[in-house]
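Exam prep: given the inputs below (a chain plus iron/sulfur cluster), describe the expected output before reading on.
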Amino acid sequence: MSIRKKTVLDCRTCATMGWVTHRSQRDSTLTLAERFRIDEGNEIGVRARGYFAGGTLVEDLGIGPALVRTRAIIADGQIDTIFEAAFEAGEFVARVDVLRRTADGWHVIEVKSSLDPKDEHVDDLAYSVAVATASGLNVVQASLMLLSRDFRNGQSDSELFALHDRSAEVRTRQAALQNDFGRIAEQVLGETQPAPELTVACKGCDYFPDCLGADVTTPIFRIPRLTGKKLETLLRDGILELSDIPVDFVLTAPQARFVEVMRTGKAHFDVEDAQAFLAEISWPAHYLDFETATTCVPLYDGLAPHEQFVTQYSLHVCDSLGNIIHHREHLAEHSCDGRRELIERLIDDLGERGSIVVYSHFEKTMLGKLSLTFPEYAPAVGAIVDRLFDLEPLFKNFLTHPRFGGRTSIKAILPVLTTLSYDGLEVADGSHAMAAFAMLAKGRLLESESGELRNALLKYCCQDTLAMVRLHEAVHRIASGELPMPE
Ligand code: SF4
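Solution:
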């Protein structure tokens, strides 16, 4: 089996990772969020081809026929732009998004759906150049083609992209990669899995649970906001299990509290501080949650690529602790720009009195965006922002439970403190909600699927605000001694 880009880049991070990646089968059961990401990438690929008039596409024929076809097009000399050109150097293969003939040689271009160039993009580009060069192509220039921050809905595709010349960096990395090809091939193709090494890369590694994390109860990666330097120090000393951290190792107060909670298995609860914090909420309390969407190519006027916009909200209103007097919700029409209707209804639904309880800064950020989009509503939105009360600091500062596992998200906390959870919901997380709305708006789902999916979106957002109501209630009752702290 040929060695592909992802395997090589993984192997450069960790030999074990590369070895496992080379043998991994692509999971054919994609989630809606994964399908959406792939569709978005494909759309950008197609639009990028439109940027270069008269290019020829090497169809997805499988690597063998694609190599033959690429060689034929290059030899022909009549075609100056090739899409998905295929190259092979020993065991290594690469497909180049865009290849352009210049007066001196070839310009390799990799298309990414990001706004900013990232280090990994340059590695990606360097790999394509390394394989193409090793196969005999004279590469004289290497660029990333990214989305332009200045693009707005309605402009032509030629304004959607921005080319970033990275030839100098790529030259250095490509040489290093080519020098490393021998070692990589030996490690990746070897019968024996290379011995895993504990490094910072383990923290974000998908294989961690089956690799070095297999026998670890609570990895140190769970410690909230641990600096890279401290993480490196612990890993250098071979410390991966949280309970192995030396008692004199310097941590911040919240980190030390978390470590203590995990070591003892007992919750930490600053009752008085939590009560004082919650006493700031004024009634009627409005528990508010937004869902948003974002697409590579903006859907509506004024939006930039990847700019988030609010698609729906849920609002539970309580006149006293846990006593819901009504629930309001709104999900924008997916077939048109529903932002104006959404902000008008939201202003109406929130009234003028009582705290607006949210979870995180997200709602404040999105309200700011709505205010910029519809300046005529800026005073009303400003009044809403003044009433916001963020519930999350309760779990960042005053209540830490071992079963939260170092997380403060509603999804981590809810099943510990209440009988509610997100289990069984068709849409059960924000990325799924985002993908569902965007897929509907882009017409990528059947209209017959839309009714059920829209209901699932409403249920999910409703669960978020109901969760806030019940969490507020649970913490209040635990603090007052009406309820015991869950085990
Ligand atoms: S967990 Fe660490 S050693 Fe294992 S594959 Fe991932 S990065 Fe490599």
